[in-house]
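If you are new to this repository, start here. Below is one unmodified record pulled from the training split, so you can see the exact layout before writing a loader.
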Amino acid sequence: MKLSILTATYNRGSFLTRLYESIINNLIDEMDIEWLIIDDGSVDNTTEIVSNFVEKEKLKIQYFKQENQGKMQAINNLIKYITGEICIEFDSDDYFTNDAFKRIYEKYSIIKENPNIYALIFLKNECPGRLSGKKFINENVDTTAFDLYFKDDIGGEKNFIYNSNIRKQYKYIIEPGEKFCTEARLHHQLDLKYKIRCFNEVIAEGEYQENGYTKNMQKIFKENPVGFRNYFFEILLRNMKGIKFKKRIYIIKHYILFSVLSNMKINIREIKGIYNKILIMILYFPGKIKSKIYKANK
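And here is the target side for that same chain:
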């Protein structure tokens, strides 16, 4: 079995050594590893640090460099170089926990002949000993990323181990003039044809950085409103039976917010379900006012 690790990095050279060491410490005989690194226009010493890893010849590494296009486009550009049977997108400031590859190997060996599963999902700690989000309610059963978040209310960051053959058929949808999109938009596309299987085992840890996406979401929202608007609109085109009420309100409020931020109309006729249409009509005007205030407070 071969695992491809995909890392998009931008001025994170100081973190890469920790990630590299965690990969080396996790190597097992049953699994080949390749590390595909794409440098999204760094101006620090990333190139020198990666060159040092390559010279040690302990791990197969491919290093690519591009002008800054954003993390999602960087991953899109990297997908075609995957040679592993399975792959994981792994942030440069995260690192693998002990026995991570062993856990991945054991779980994937059970389901590798199942053509309906596009990914295995594992837990992540946002710092040592503190779980990001919640554990899965139902472990080792087939479900979707959509149902996990909107029906089971399982939030927090998780690690997806993708079936490479399936993953390579999809790319992140990035709107013209924008650089970011939520990973969930990709997962919802995959959900339409395939399933995921979840395990309450931690395989990664990492702290949120001050210049990272998680701590700068307000800025990202304002710079990428079309992508977020289309993400929430696509949800409203789905069958939303079983979605928790608070999640339904969350979806509608953000659809209104990003429609205003992107100067796009509310497509109420296309939205599925009379209940959703009524909620949008109720929330539209107060939501529009709040959205304009939000837009003004840059």
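Two things worth knowing about this chain: The mean pLDDT is 92. The chain has eleven helices and ten strands.
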